[in-house]
User: Fold this.
Amino acid sequence: MRFDILTLFPELFPPFYNESILGRAVKKGLVDIRLTNIRSFAHGRHNVTDDRPYGGGDGMVMKPGPIFRALNSIERLNEKTPVILLTPQGRTFDQSIAWELSEREQLILVCGRYEGVDERIRTGCIDMELSIGDYVLSGGELGAMVLLDAISRLVPGVLGGERSNKEDSFEGGLLEYPHYTRPNIFDGEGVPEVLLSGDHEKIRKWRRVESLKRTLERRPDLLKKVRLTDEDKVFLKEIKRD
Ligand code: 4H7
Assistant:
């Protein structure tokens, strides 16, 4: 899968994508990340990429020309390749969007700075607007990194054999059960007996119940969206009764 990222700060990205799971995916050639510096497409002696807003007011707006030319310079591997703008005004990115986007051959991510991009870029060049949550950032770069991470790990082969993403939080639509590792006693606290029992069926049930408990307590909104099995429904009744 190829990511083309348009940004005024390309140097922010390699320290992030050269590490860990994503780093391995890049090395293996499963994920190809290409950075385009919007400034390289600015004109004039000073390579200006921003300008004062028409109508006045504080702050600067990203000029449309450099972004337009940067976008035109990018090779399109597929006629369906979406151009995505990271903006607080976009649809909130979540795991189901991550799954959908992971099926694409290529994604083009546009990172805005200053007060954002000229409206004609949004209307003329952008296919999809995504937000990573309801807060303000000084640029779209962190959002692009969030997409890179969340989407790459869904690409077949990226997670290797180490774990299945189906078991992850939100994958089953529920929060994860609690995890424990050695030592057996830490800071005076033990480990739930069932996890030491070796009884895999009992462990599976315990984990499912803990997932359901946590989700009910912390994110009841998720329970409304998820498909529950008959066993889940029995567990939930017991949890609610207790
Ligand atoms: C594009 C358009 C994304 C990029 C506007 C980007 C939060 C998110 C930005 C803006 C972002 C997110 C303009 C929004 C200046 C904030 C004060 C860069 N912030 N800006 N405003 N939640 N900022 O995904």
Remarks:
- The chain has nine helices and seven strands.
- Residues 81 and 235 are 43 Å apart (CA to CA).
- The mean pLDDT is 96.
- The chain has two domains: 2-152, 167-241.
